[in-house]
Amino acid sequence: MHLLLIEDDLDLGRSLQAAFRQQGFTCEWLRRSLDAPLLLADVAAACVLLDLGLPDGSGFDLLSRWRRADAATPVIVITARTSLEDRLAGLDGGADDVVLKPFAIPELISRIHAVVRRSARQSHEAWRLGDLVIDPRGHAACLAGQPLQLTSREFQLLLELAREPGAVVAKGRIAQRLAPLDEPVDAATLEMHVSNLRKKIGPERIRTVRGIGYQLVA
Amino acid sequence: MRALLQPLWRPTLLRRVLGALLIAFALAGTALLALDFIEFKRGMAERSGVQSLADAIASTLVDIDNVRDAGLIVQARAREMTRLRRESGVLPGDIEFSLQAGDGPPVFATPGAAAADPSTHWLAPARAGRWRLMLAEPRIGDATVLGLLGRDLIGYLLLAFPLVLLPLWIAVRRGMQPLNRLADAVAQRDAQDLSPLGFTPRHDELKPLATAFDELLARLRSQQQRERAFVQDAAHELRTPMAVVAAQAHVLVHAADDAERQQAAAALDAALQRASHLSRQLLTLATLDEARDGNAEVLDLAALVQQTLAQAAPRALAAGLELSLNAAATLSARLDRAAFESVLLNLVDNALRYVPAGEQGGRIAVTLEAGARLVTLRVADDGPGIPHDQREAAFERFWRGAAGADAPGTGLGLAIVRQAAARLGGRVRITDGLDGRGVAFVLELPIYI
Question: Over 80: is that where the pLDDT of A53 sits?
Fold first, then answer.
């Protein structure tokens, strides 16, 4: 899973990156709200972690700008301001969750999984799409109770499609999300991964909208 | 017994009023008595009571020619007077009467009349035709006169006293009620409630008390607000370093190999140092925030500055910075050592943090001078400096410069410097640094020797 971290504190940013790396997350770290993407829809991340106390402007402004553009990517606000007003302002301002500093890393990880799960409209730790079950924490998937042997890329692809259930996900976006910190995966490679995944979960489950993208069918 | 009587002697306003009233009545009584006495004396000198009596009796004798008749009249009057006088029992002795016709022998005389003379009696002679009447009233001493006059007065005073006391007592009791209400208003307060009493007394005398109390509350309120703000700021600022510690501890526990473990341990160590540095700075600031009552001692400031800079010198050398001191050999001053060291350490620490080592830059120059009335400590550098419009804000707690987020620091150093300078009774200001670049902090302290 890919995360976007916006945090000005050098030490905290570094330590969070190290912790996320251990969890198998990839993470892009920005230190100024100036550098933050204008639209949340442009973000390849499955979840954004936003520190409210940025030196060049409040994280609130960023959050309200993103929410005005109606993006669904979940945002977790990280804040040292612990008053009820501040916490409510974070939630009412469009955050999916508020985490107070100092926090325990396992709690932060659990909250990240929770908001991503909710944005994928899943109610359980193991995501269910018909008889297809995906466990994002365990990097595993089952079909009709039988474990699937998926490569890392294939699992990533499945998860990215499952994050937007029912939606047609553009090819370009998937290509970027599969390699969030690098150049997007090229079209031929993406098609190869999709075709391999189809073989494993059943061809009817991934519908191709020609020239546009793919849709995961439950 | 004494313990039993003690409550009676405890001073109360009511008792005081009672005492004052008693004294007032005693004074008034004395004055009235003196007035009466003077009046009495004057009356006796002008025309005494016995003289009036003698004149009145004499006037009844004018038309009487018969000796026997005259004698009987005077005798009758003498008997009557004696009886009345004895009945009243107020005055001692009898009035003596004697009546003569011309220069002849007495026609009538009471037994003591012959012995009466001016030393023992007031004599009241009266003439009517050929009759010469002489009345003699026994003289009475001044003490007796005063006693008699006093006996009359005291009755009136005793009657007047309760009549005056009652309304006065009521007035005092009612006058105390607003005070009791004020006391109740104070007593019923929550300990945390420092809002104004909002008590407007009807009586002008109570207004200073209510006002003074509200002013005290206002001072406490602002002090409490400052302390709350400090605690909140402190809690807020400690959260990020603690989050780093928590994250690094997690990373260390989950490290996959030795290299990662070592890296994580070093990072955790740095995170802990940052948190403990911040805690120390907060503690220093909190200590300096307390009442301005330092432990002043006579110090050789020159030696103290030299020693302190010697401790910082290795860091300067390691960073490639040129640290210098220009001071007299000795400089005695009486001041709080810890506060002075806080100023110097924080200023030098700031310079070491923010001045980059350059080809021709990287200088930190400390000067210590004693003027006629001021000791001046100056820490100047040729680093990035602080823009003019931010120089005042730089002393605020948790202020970080433009480069602040990148340089490790707590944002408390200059707040500590200002607080410590205030504790030393001096002040600190910012000017331009070396060669028109960088920044210089100037601490000016009044000399107490």
Answer: no
B311 with B410, same domain?
A: yes
Measure the CA–CA gap between B264 and B258, rounded to whole angstroms. 10
List, as ranges, residues 200-259 from B with C-beta within 8 Å of A.
235-237, 239-248, 250-251, 254-256
Q: Are A197 and A159 in contact (CB under 8 A)?
A: no
Put simply, whether the predicted model's pTM sits higher than 0.90 gets the answer no
Question: Does B357 touch chain A if contact means CB atoms closer than 8 Å?
Answer: no
Give, as one character, the DSSP assignment of residue B430: E
Parent domain of A166: 127-216
B258 and B314 together in one domain: no
The CA distance from B286 to A3, in Å, is 40
Pick from A34, A38, A40: nearest CA to A70: A40
Q: How far apart are CA B354 and CA B351, in angstroms?
A: 5
Q: Is residue B199 pLDDT above 90, yes or no? A: no
Q: What is the pLDDT of residue B55?
A: 87
Task: Check whether A218 has a pLDDT greater than 80.
Answer: no
- Which of these three, A85, A119, A153, is where a domain ends? A119
**Start-end of H helices in B134-257:** 142-187, 207-253
pLDDT at B292: 56
Q: What 3-state class would DSSP assign to B350?
A: helix
As a whole number of angstroms, the longest Cα–Cα distance in chain B is 161
- Give residue B200's domain range: 192-290
Say what the pLDDT of residue A155 is. 92
| Strand, coil or helix: B76 | helix
Residues in chain B: 449
Q: Cis peptide before A102, with omega less than 30 degrees from 0? A: yes
B chain contacts of residue A55, beta-carbon cutoff 8 Å: 400, 404-405
Q: ipTM of this complex > 0.85? A: no
Q: Tens of pLDDT along A106-131? A: 999 999 999 999 988 888 888 988 88
A61 and A94, same structural domain? yes
Instruction: Give mean pLDDT, residues A164-190.
Output: 85
Q: Which CATH number characterizes residue A101's domain?
A: 3.40.50.2300
**End-to-end CA separation in angstroms for chain A:** 21
| Residues B324, B344 share a domain | yes
Instruction: Say whether pLDDT at B405 is over 60.
Output: no
The whole-number pLDDT of residue B294 equals 63
Same domain assignment for residues A109 and A28: yes
Residue A96 CA to residue B178 CA, distance in Å, equals 58
Task: Tell me: do B315 and B378 sit in the same domain.
Answer: yes
Confidence band for B128, pLDDT divided at 50, 70 and 90: confident
CB atoms within 10 A of CB B383: 25
Q: How far is B297 from chain A (nearest CA, A)?
A: 41
Q: Looking at the predicted structure, is the pLDDT value of residue A46 above 80? A: yes
Looking at B9-102, which runs of residues are DSSP E strands? 96-101
- From B373's Cα to the closest Cα of chain A, the distance in A is 43
Other CB atoms within 10 Å distance of the CB of residue A169: 19
Q: Which has more pLDDT, B226 or B4?
A: B226
Q: Is residue B24's pLDDT more than 80? A: yes
Q: Is B148 touching A (CB cutoff 8 A)?
A: no
Whether residue A71 is found in the same domain as residue A98: yes
Q: In terms of Cα–Cα distance, which of A89, A105, A94 is closest to A65?
A: A94
